[in-house]
Amino acid sequence: MNTVPVAAARAYESPTEKLKAWVDGAVLHLSFNNPAKHNAISVEMWEAVPLLLDQAEKDDAIRMVVFSGQGPKAFASGADISQFEDMRAAREAVKKYEHMAENALMGLYRFGKPVVAAIHGYCLGGGVNMAISCDIRIARSDAVFSIPATRLGLGYRFSALKNLVDLVGPGAAQDLFFTARRIDAGEAKAIGLVSRVAPPDQFDALLAEYTSAITTGAPLTIKAGKRIIREVLRPDAHIDMDFCQRLIKDCFESEDYAEGRKAFMEKRKPVFKGK
């Protein structure tokens, strides 16, 4: 996950070199590019993420997004603390920094298409926040995870802790957060922080398995499933059942549903168009 193709099918120009963007088939790849600092997430990265996701949301040719990290050592090693003195020195600067990070993470969480985090090496602090805002996390066996907030004295956002608790449960969330300890890929899988783990030489094949499965699936069904799962995680009193029913109805009334049935009867693979 550390190379960028020379040409892409469609133009996705990142506003910063610190976040690489390229298209491979129906997949938009976004890759943190700050290897000298183990891909620490800078202000420029926080600002670039929602811009690129907004473009991908409107692009019917893009079926999914993959986040990765450039260089051999890290997915993302947290916030770029070299910027803290400037960005977090005063109350208004803190508010601005937190707003940018929250905007990027919640934009990722609400993004309508599937997002996979392809994790290798260090995944720390803000890197964990990025990963758990994605829909699926796969990891190389050399991945290392930690949330070191208690070693930095930072206040942690409600949304970040909610995402963590929703994913791994309160017990594992408290363990990781209170101790700031580092865990390996095996323990991350055991607690549900990642779905699957592969050795370095098999990791690209694992990612390809996901990109192939997702990009050939029915887009409207995937979209409906993602939105309904989000509703399931809300308190019962706030679940919008009418909205869920509309999503399901849209699937059954789509051209893709007719294509899926026809392909099944003809014993061939369906070709879905998201219509």
Describe this structure as you would to a colleague.
The chain is an alpha/beta fold and 275 residues long. It folds into 2 domains: 19-215, Alpha-Beta Complex (2-enoyl-CoA Hydratase, Chain A, domain 1); 219-265. It has helices spanning 43-57, 84-87, 91-110, 126-133, 158-168, 170-179, 185-191, 200-215, 219-232, 241-252, 255-265, and strands at residues 19-24, 27-32, 64-69, 74-76, 115-119, 122-124, 136-140, 144-146, 183-184, 196-198. The strands form 2 sheets. It has a 6-stranded mixed β-sheet, with helices on both faces. Helix 1 packs parallel to helix 3 (91-110), helix 5 (158-168) crosses helix 6 (170-179) and helix 9 packs antiparallel against helix 10 (241-252). The longest helix is centred in the middle third of the chain and has 20 residues, at 91-110.
Put the structure in a nutshell:
By secondary structure, this protein is an alpha/beta fold.
* CATH architecture descriptor of the largest domain: Alpha-Beta Complex
Helix fraction?
Answer: 40-55%
CATH superfamily of the largest domain: 2-enoyl-CoA Hydratase, Chain A, domain 1
Summing up helix and strand content along with how strands pair, one would put the structural category as alpha/beta
How many beta-strand elements?
10
How many domains is the backbone divided into?
2
Write the layout of secondary structure elements.
Elements: E1 19-24, E2 27-32, H1 43-57, E3 64-69, E4 74-76, H2 84-87, H3 91-110, E5 115-119, E6 122-124, H4 126-133, E7 136-140, E8 144-146, H5 158-168, H6 170-179, E9 183-184, H7 185-191, E10 196-198, H8 200-215, H9 219-232, H10 241-252, H11 255-265
Parallel strand pairs: 2-3, 3-5, 4-6, 5-7, 6-8, 7-10
Antiparallel strand pairs: 1-2, 8-9
Helix pairs in contact: 1-3, 5-6, 9-10
